[in-house]
Specification:
The model has no long low-confidence stretch (mean pLDDT 91). The protein is α/β, with parallel strands linked by helices and 194 residues long. Helix content is 43%, strand content 23%.
């Protein structure tokens, strides 16, 4: 059986990354895309199950795994609130033939690409402009003006990392961006099977 591959998708908030990734996973089962199952030190919410949505660890367990260099990437979002991707979990998934999708921030994406090299493809979903991103974030109606300014400043910073990704998909038209992402992924995951 062929080993799976790794697909890293990063983007500034509001670029349409989650919409594109979810569309690829639902509409193109032939790509065999599965999310990497991350770890978190937060408590399960609602019906979340250990080993399905996340692996739930205590902050102490999380720190121990950091000390043992078991993570591909991790972040302490708030004090004692960690999120991260275990190397061993990713290996289990690709050994079973799954193509593992990482929906991560730009720095996490760059770190994963550096670790896996040619075994991974990194994709940066970019808004057509910061002005368009502002329009989308304001259109959502979910953020305060201060939060929008903060997200836009972060987006401008994140966009400076785009050249470090294998491919940049500019999402100025969602259907076009979906198709472009699909063609890139199809060529990457099917590459060895020809």
């Amino acid at each position: 059986m062929n080993k799976g591959k790794l697909v890293i998708v990063s983007a500034p908030s509001g670029s349409g990354k989650s919409t594109i990734v979810n569309w690829l996973m639902q509409e193109h089962p032939e790509l065999k895309l599965y999310f990497s199952i991350s770890c978190t030190s937060r408590a399960p919410r609602g019906n979340e199950q250990n080993g399905v949505e996340y692996f739930f660890l205590t902050p102490e367990e999380f720190r121990e795994k950091i000390d043992n260099d078991e993570f591909l990437e991790y972040e302490e979002v708030y004090e004692n609130r960690f999120y991260g991707t275990l190397k061993a979990q990713v290996e289990r998934q690709i050994d079973s033939g799954q193509n593992v999708v990482f929906d991560v921030d730009v720095k996490g994406g760059i770190n994963i690409k550096r670790f896996y090299g040619e075994q991974a493809m990194s994709l940066f979903i970019q808004p057509p402009s910061v002005e368009e991103l502002r329009r989308r974030l304001e259109g959502r109606g979910t953020d305060t003006p201060e939060a929008i300014e903060s997200r836009l400043a972060k987006a401008e910073y994140e966009m400076t990392f785009a050249p470090q990704f294998d491919h940049i998909v500019v999402n100025d038209d969602l259907e076009t961006a979906k198709q472009e992402a699909y063609l890139l992924l199809k060529e990457f995951v099917k590459g060895d099977e020809e």
